[in-house]
Amino acid sequence: MDFEQIEIGKLPLDLLENIARDISDYTVALIALGFKKDDLVEHHIGSGSLIRVGEKHCILTAHHCIDSHAFKDCIRLGLAIKSHPHHFSIIKDHLKIIDVGKPNNNDICPDIGICVLPKTELGWLLANKSFWDIEKYKEVIFDISSDINIGVYAISGCPDVYTINGGSNRGFHKSKGFQNTIGFCGVGKHWEKDEYDYYLCKASYDAFSNSPKSFKGMSGGGLWHIPLKKEDNGSITYKRPYLSGLSFFEYPIVNIERDILCHGPKSIYERVYSIL
After folding, report:
1. In CATH, what is the architecture of 8-275?
2. 167 and 85 in contact (C-beta within 8 Å)?
3. Which of 43, 243, 244, 255 has the smallest number of CB atoms closer than 10 Å to its CB?
């Protein structure tokens, strides 16, 4: 098989837009909701990917998002899932929180958490979003991800820098908009440590880049691998994006590049799967 190297910025725009649309269907912004006196208070605590294992429907995110003070103090977890003003939230006590990998401040370490969703809240979510079936792709994901240089990677989530504070809208007293962003990137290196794997992704800030100035708010969002194929007529196609991990830490920008630390497929399809 022949391979050709193509810069991300030179990939067809319609191709990237189609990939982004597919990935967005599995992505949610996470908002901790509470009250201060009589006013609703919201805190954007991160992003997540909707996943399923058997009959369990969950939000896969970074552990530090659901270990934050804002989440611990909140009453409900809000999910931004549609492109127009809406409100969807779940009572926090109805969620089952699973600590998969709890970070510490001493070294690079796991940072994965899961919110298992109550069945009573699934109807509207299933009607408007999709859940990535971990079990379905468990057998093929390691073949697909065996070569990190095949295709392109993307980090999905809702960065704080794009959050919009609005006034009353469609019957709501106030509104806040969260923009799901797909940051296309490459993988610089990857390694394994204990039961987890780590991918160091590189977000570019060159003239062709769409990377946000900061990835804060995207923590917990999915890392997706999209194998690409060049057809005989020269067009570039893809079959589907594959959920391959999650992002959880950003490094400072150095020489128009930022490293984003992510978990890889082993952490999701072996560690997370074994717990669920």
Report:
1. Beta Barrel (2.40)
2. no
3. 255
